[in-house]
Design goal:
With about 100 residues, the chain is mainly α. It has four helices and no strands. It starts with 5 loop residues before the first helix and ends with a helix.
Length: about 100
């Protein structure tokens, strides 16, 4: 029996997730979540399945590099969030001036 690749496993997982969502929708849904939220969740899982195997293959055997890259992206996201929260008036004024 051959070994399954991570991509094949993720495709099976997404198909199983879609099947669960379809069955739950036929049974009345999951609690009070609207259908748009579940559709968004399925779309995000599909994007993760599409991008995930490439990222895992790129950082295979280099965990410290992967952690460093994740920390860098989290720092960039934090700077953007802080600039949005605390610099909203400043950015709006700059947009008017430009």
């Amino acid at each position: 029996m051959r070994e399954r690749s991570i991509g094949e496993i993720l495709v099976v997982a997404i198909l199983a997730t879609i099947l669960v969502f379809v069955i739950a929708d036929l049974a009345g849904g999951f609690g009070d979540f609207p259908n748009e939220r579940w559709a968004s969740a399925v779309a995000l899982v599909c994007v993760a399945v599409w991008i995930g195997p490439g990222l895992l293959a790129r950082w295979r055997g280099n965990a410290s590099g992967a952690v460093r890259a994740v920390a860098l992206w989290l720092a960039i996201a934090l700077v953007i969030a802080l600039a949005y929260v605390y610099g909203h008036g400043f950015l709006a004024d700059m947009g008017v001036r430009v």
